[in-house]
Amino acid sequence: KLFFTDYGNAAKVERCDMDGMNRTWIVDSKIEQPTALALDLVNKYVYWVDIYLDSVEVVDYQGRKRHTIIKGRQIRHLCGLAVFESYLYTVNSDTHSILRINRYNSSDVQPLARHDNAREIHVYQKRTQTTVRSHACEVDPYGMPGGCSHICLLSSNYKARTCRCRTGFILGSDGRSCK
Prior knowledge:
Pfam families: FXa_inhibition, Ldl_recept_b. With 179 residues, the chain is mainly beta. The protein has strands at residues 2-6, 12-16, 24-27, 34-40, 45-50, 55-60, 67-71, 78-84, 87-92, 97-102, 109-114, 151-154, 161-164. The protein has two domains: 2-123, Neuraminidase (6 Propeller), CATH 2.120.10.30; 132-178, Laminin. It is built from no helices and 13 strands. The relative contact order is 0.12.
């Protein structure tokens, strides 16, 4: 799945398949300007920062179990969000501080470092990604991902795929080659 935020005409947090199909709103109320988003892949939770409401909130992948992690002035100007173990990590764009927020105890907010011009944060840890033994976009014997001549996107599950073409090309009738 692909998770993303949108604060155009109607602010929301959404999810869809990697090929853009099955688009679903998971949060569409009491939300104004969702910017940063992070996933807890193990427990299947979506966290986001709302810069208008000065809040960090969470829901499960279906949009249920919503609650506020932290709200208020102390978390103004947040951008970027990452989850690792019991903490959320974010950047305060006003003070250029990297913050650690305990996601189970909102009174535990720690500035960790200062980094000028920081706007995004990522946590790299091998165990944060689940291992998939095989998937529909694996490279075939001819070097084409999923048998697609340009781009292979996973679909509704890891065994299904959709082929797409780079700009200026059109997908052929075989659904795999680009012309």
